[in-house]
From TrEMBL:
It is found in: Cell membrane. It comes from Caloramator fervidus. This is Possible tyrosine transporter P-protein. GO terms for cellular component: plasma membrane. Keywords: Cell membrane, Membrane, Transmembrane, Transmembrane helix, Transport. Belongs to the CitM (TC 2.A.11) transporter family.
């Protein structure tokens, strides 16, 4: 079973990289094979799917569609264009803005919110939105680890290590993960500046877009506030964040139908939800669960104890960069969930505080997902948006920007975390 799960996993991810147009079908087919072969028990399939993320994506997609129809993204695009001098600074500004937003809400939600702004900018300036969307995606994925509510991996760490929202800023008298990630983000913006240095075409705005309805904007702001508030609730249901997003979407639809008398709002909004991306992620959850079921991830994790030989710096280094490598191809959520207890055991065995290893894990796992198109849910979502616009992005094209961006941010976080928490 173990060998079969490895072969299926490798075949799945090779096909995902080689045949991006058929990613959803590949993911679902692979999930079915993992179930049919008995690697993943039928009675456990639903429990392995992270319904909190699925509900968050669906709810946010619907809210973002209302947000787009309100013309607020167009106004935001106009404001950015009006305040910068060239396309280069438009792209860098959008990426930085996406990072700031992603520090407080899920990175997938951030991409869904900011990507329409980038698309509007690209259309107004008559340029390709591909690298602009990629920059937004990898920037949001990077800063998702900055706060408790920024990413699912942060929520996993917070729950396991009993950390609350403010612990990500200052923890046990030291600088928290927020500052480590933010400094890494600042360094990565230099990479964006170099990458887009020749995008010096001046921009000019003649007239700003008028917003037709501010209610969807209020929904988005409410979502941020409620997600932050929910982080302080002890022992809350695992799908709390997803229910928040879905509930706000329902409120938005009720307002559109009953108050605005928009009879087409329900169909229009629900049809705009990217069901292919949702199904792709559901399939990947099952695939990675297969590796957990056969003990493959546990076997790989145990290698840390063999190669580390009691040397904290060596174990820390292996953990960070191994996490980068794995998360480039494997969804970081199940990987992080699996590795947290392993890291705790390593720290206990060495009689040290586990936080340097916890934070190293998060730096490697969260930022490492930026390297490939399938390494993070935000990247998958971003490419789904581009695909709907008629742009099929190949892995090599994606990694032209993502690889230097990711390595600069990880290296910065790797050094800072060691200096602060060793």
């Amino acid at each position: 079973m173990k060998l079969l799960s490895i072969l299926l996993f490798v075949a799945t991810y090779m096909l995902l990289l080689l045949l991006p147009k058929y990613r959803t079908y590949i993911s679902l087919t692979s999930a079915v094979l993992f179930i049919v072969t008995g690697i993943v028990p039928v009675n456990k399939v639903l429990s392995y799917i992270d319904w909190n993320i699925i509900l968050m994506i669906a709810g946010t997609m619907g809210i973002v569609n209302l947000f787009i129809e309100s013309k607020m993204p167009a106004l935001m695009a106009d404001i950015i264009i009006d305040r910068v001098s060239s396309i280069k600074w438009v792209i860098i500004s959008l990426a930085a803005f996406a990072g700031i937003v992603s520090a407080f809400i899920d990175n997938v939600a951030t991409v869904l919110i900011i990507a329409p702004v980038a698309l509007d900018v690209a259309k107004k300036l008559n340029i390709s939105p591909v690298y602009m969307i990629i920059a937004i995606s990898i920037s949001s994925n990077l800063q998702g680890a900055a706060t408790l509510v920024g990413d699912t991996t942060s929520l996993l760490l917070g729950g396991y290590a009993k950390m609350d929202f403010m612990d990500f800023f200052f923890f046990k008298g030291r600088l928290g993960l927020f500052w480590i990630v933010e400094i890494g983000a600042a360094v990565s913006l230099i990479v964006l500046y170099i990458f887009f240095k020749n995008y010096d075409i001046p921009v000019h705005l003649e007239e700003k877009q008028r917003v037709e309805d501010y209610f969807p904007t209020y929904l988005l702001v409410s979502m941020v506030i409620l997600l932050i508030f929910a982080s302080f609730i002890p022992n809350k249901p695992s799908i709390t964040n997803g229910l928040i997003c879905i509930s706000l979407l329902v409120i938005g639809l009720i307002k559109e139908i009953l108050i605005d008398k928009n009879n087409h709002a329900l169909n229009n909004t629900l049809l705009q939800i990217d069901y292919e991306t949702i199904l792709l992620l559901m399939g990947l959850f099952v695939v990675v669960a297969g590796l957990s079921e056969t003990g493959v991830i546990d076997d790989i994790s145990s290698l840390f104890l063999r190669f580390g030989k009691g040397n904290l710096f060596l174990i820390y280094t292996i953990l960070v960069w191994f996490s980068v490598l794995i998360s480039a191809f494997v969804d970081n959520i199940p990987y992080t969930a699996t590795m947290l207890p392993v890291v705790a055991k390593i720290a206990k065995g060495m009689n040290i505080s586990p936080y340097i290893l916890f934070f190293g894990l998060l730096i490697g796992a969260t930022l490492g997902g930026n390297i490939t198109p399938i390494g993070a849910s935000a990247n998958i979502t971003a490419l789904g948006i581009l695909r709907k616009e008629g742009y099929d992005v190949k892995a090599r094209e994606f990694m032209k920007l993502s690889l230097p961006f990711t390595l600069s941010a990880v290296l910065t976080g790797y050094i800072l975390n060691w200096l602060i928490w060793r």
